[in-house]
Amino acid sequence: MSLYIQCKDVxxxxxxxxxxxxxxxxxxxxxxxxxxxxVVGPSGSGKTTLLNIIGGMDKPDAGVxxxxxxxxxxxxxxxxxxxxxRKVGFVFQFFNLIPTLTAIENVELPMILLGKSREERRKRAxxxxxxxxxxxxxDRKPGQLSGxxxxxxxxxxxxxxxxxxxxxxxxxxxxxxxxxxxIALLFRELHREMNKTMIIVTHDLSIAMYAEKISRMxxxxxxxxxxxxxxxxYVLSPSKTEEIVARLEAxxxxxxxEIEKLESDYKQGLxxxxxxxxKYIELKGIIDRIDEELKKYTLT
Length: 300
Ligand SMILES: Nc1ncnc2c1ncn2[C@@H]1O[C@H](COP(=O)(O)OP(=O)(O)O)[C@@H](O)[C@H]1O
Ligand SMILES: [Mg+2]
Prior knowledge:
By secondary structure, this protein is an alpha/beta fold. The protein is 48% helix and 21% strand. The strands form two sheets. A six-stranded mixed β-sheet has the order 6-7-8-3-9-10. It has a four-stranded antiparallel β-sheet with strand order 2-1-4-5. The protein is globular. The mean pLDDT is 91. It binds adenosine-5'-diphosphate and magnesium ion (MG).
């Protein structure tokens, strides 16, 4: 069981307190059946928004999202609920387990929602937890497990209903390097064993290197796709680095101009104080993130 994904000109705009943030600005993406794809990029570039839309947890303002021959943006609430339950397994950065339930109960939960029998649920949950190397910890609550173990339980939860699509949002973001390596390896093994389509947002090169392709997001768009081999040369190659630094600096100049315009609009009384302040903070925030990115490249 697997499926392909196609995003066409996807736009997502958040509106909060009179301020618009364009999280996805005409994003295009094609993922093959059974592919493992990594998505990298600075924070705020729209990675989580993209996963939430593909996972049916959020709707775009424009564009098309085809999953397995169907445009999920046309789904109503009921269809979306079914879609999330049957087709998507989500792995989050903060594990997202229910603290009052044991590991096995957490894994059984999605199967309860699908109406599986008690025996069937227990059997599959035990199988999955064993596969995750947690056969002796099935009755522990999340608080009695390490971060890496909790993430393994969370992966078992995501696999419970055997969805053809696995989405993971910075699944090693909260883990130390050694544990991250293990989880990265687990994703690779699962991908090889189960032939599911996987999209993994990550800052973690050890995961990205296991993917078939790596997409880099910047500012609400996918700006390039690389193979792991290209990623390696790109990380090391001075000319590619220069290219990226030049683009980031150009974007920063544009943002500084936007701030100038905002300030002059405000001085002329064209916009409200509240709008000015929140827009100003947002633009500054993006500049800070660009500066952070720039630091990475100037260090290497
Ligand atoms: N619920 C929301 N309301 C308003 N703005 C949001 C919301 N979620 C995300 N954003 C904004 O959308 C942009 C993309 O965010 P996100 O998808 O979380 O990026 P990433 O996961 O790459 O860090 C950011 O500027 C962020 O501040
Ligand atoms: Mg995110």
